[in-house]
Amino acid sequence: MSEWSPQKSAELYGLDFWGNDYFNVNNKGHVTLTPFGKSGPSVDLKEVTDNLEERGIRLPILLRFPEIVKSRIELINSCFEKAIKSNEYKGHFTGVYPIKVNQQKHLVEEIVAHGAKYGFGLECGSKPELLITLALMDTEDGLIICNGFKDREYIEMALSSRKMGRNTIIVVDRWTELSMIIDASKKLGIKPKIGLRAKLNAQAGGKWAETSGSKSKFGLSPSEIVYFVEVLKKEGMLDCLELLHFHIGSQIPSILSIKSAIKEGARFFTELYHMGTRLKYMDVGGGLGVDYDGSGKSDSSRNYDEQEYANDVVWSIQQICDEKNVPHPNIITESGRSLVAHSSVLIFDVLGRNELRQPEINMPNISKDSPIVREMFEIFNSISKDNLNESYNDLLEKKKDTRQLFAYGVLSLEQRAKAEDLYWASVTKIADLTKDEPDYEDIYMSLESELCDTFFCNFSVFQSLPDSWALNQVFPVMPIHRLEEKPTRRAVIADLTCDSDGNIDAFVDSVEGGTHSFLPVHSQEPLEPYYMAVFLTGAYQEILGDMHNLFGDTDAVHLTTNGEHGFNVDNVIEGDDIQDVLAYVDFNRGEMLQKVRSVTEKRIQMGELSPKDARHLIGRYEKGLSRYTYLTEEEQS
Fold first, then answer.
1. DSSP string, 323-392
2. Burial category of 305 from C-beta neighbours within 10 Å (exposed 0-12, middle 13-18, buried 19 and up)
3. Are residues 293 and 150 part of one domain?
4. Segments forming the whole domain that contains residue 387
5. pLDDT at 145
6. What pLDDT is attached to residue 545?
7. What is the CATH number of the domain that holds 308?
8. In the chain, fewer beta carbons within 10 Å around the N or the C end?
9. What is the pLDDT of residues 216-236, one digit of tens each?
């Protein structure tokens, strides 16, 4: 058997499937960041973590990589440029970033800066998001697409931005919005740029399928679209209609769904053209998937790449337009997830673990133990390759009997403990004997899932990975070091929250595709830190985070490469302290301190607390208010 290697770890954790050449493993056995591909500069994530801790930045840490954002913008533009050139398409491509995906200020600024040369725009879906886009979108002729529910204030602000030189298009998502746009245009004396959102019948698969189709939340029906055009004609404003928009969902796994929707959308476009409109843009919305698990066949994956996506979008629109003798529109996409998912990584440390494997057991004298304990001891001693099925089934029965006898008060706690120790020792023995035995694969996989360690980790699923909890979204998870060693254990991940849902128990299966219920890990040395990471967290996770148990935002660091192996810390955004999250739920720091002082004063008067102890107690309480919501090294010791 050949020795283990970093490359085998890369294969085991599936980096070649989901890493997109942005993440690799070096000869030290550390995960590296390579924002411009394997041939470009790299950053060692283990060394970064050590360095940041020396600077006083606290785990868990969210690492953001603006160079990956730059790389993704270049990729999507390059793919559409190739598709347009190869098809001799007459329109051009414009990317638009929907800021709902992640509204963090530094990220939006980076997208605007890196996308300026491509005329990259922004999309907003609310009044606060509109104000962000108006402030940051300073690219000449850069599009601002206004979606979402709108009131008069929203519409008037969007119209007024035309006087700021902003290229703002107001998309009508609901029929009632058109009259508000017309009225506001007359009131302000500003000619609007209008888009309409069509409600397609085409429906994508995946986790967000319900956001598309004829019953989707937004969009105009065919009859509403016809009336829409008639109203604009009557108002003499048909030339204001510049854009057709539709959206078939997020994270679309199949290219066939995309092609079907594009063709239906192109039919709407050509029919609108023949009704007298002179639309300039066709906005195909979002949906470009991210390959979270590498399988190519799950909701967390995709069966196409960026170039195939661009080719099919361009070709499908061109085919329908040429058939109907309609000029090719300029193409807009809103591929936010694909742009930013790879750009963030969550790093956290393992605080401890719970092991169920019991390779040895010491029970020298069981003659006085209960019958069920003696029976399980006999099963343990008799397990061999000749009776694996029988032993396994007998153990399952005895496990059930043990719990029932305890529930009925027949079995003592001490005897139940012995019975469970024998159960875990027996299934450990069976798992070892069934490993690499094809005839017993089902038993082995079942036992390996049951025998997984639980790693207790310093982060909150609800705050940092809400889609994992709410939607069973799979994110790549792996250790960032010791990858030159073969992982000999398997584990599930438990977070800090007091909630049984605060865990990760679905992991990328790089061999069979899809997911495993456990993660290969290394045995943990008691005094050595063990660092793990969750990748592809840049889309939606930060902004959707929930403060379960009042765990707040983590420290966040923006990193760029510097030379062959170095890095620059461009920005550090401190995470929430305890007083920050308490303020979110209306607890005032001063009031809380005063309440504690009042209690200590009463205890002093009662002679049950000395002034010195009261001072230390108040000092500790006050210090606690300014601490990180997560565990720190000082707090763990």
1. HTT-PPPEEEE--HHHHHGGGEEEEEEEEEEE----S----S--TTS-HHHHHHHHHHHH--TTSHHHHH
2. middle
3. yes
4. 371-449
5. 96
6. 87
7. 3.20.20.10
8. N
9. 678 899 999 999 999 999 999
529 preceded by cis ω (within 30°)?
no
**Per-residue confidence at 509, pLDDT binned at 50, 70, 90?**
confident
Identify any residues that bridge with 568 across adjacent strands, giving them in sequence order.
560
CB contact at 8 A, 220 and 313: no
Q: What angle do CA 322, 325, 327 make, to 5 degrees?
A: 80
Q: Residue 558: in which H helix or E strand, if any?
A: strand 555-562
Whole-angstrom distance, CA of residue 457 vs CA of residue 215? 41
Q: What is the mean predicted confidence (pLDDT) over 286-308?
A: 90
Query: What DSSP letter does each residue of 128-174 carry, written as one string?
Result: HHHHHHHHH--STT-EEEE-S---HHHHHHHHHGGGGT-EEEEEE-S
The answer to whether 427 and 451 are in contact (CB under 8 A) is yes
What pTM value is reported for the model?
0.91
pLDDT the model gives residue 446: 84
pLDDT digit string (tens) for 253-265? 999 999 999 999 9
Question: Which residue is associated with the tokens 């066949």?
Answer: 297
Task: Identify the pLDDT of residue 215.
Answer: 57
CB 348 within 8 A of CB 459: yes
> At 398, which CATH number?
1.20.58.930
326 and 249 fall within a common domain: yes
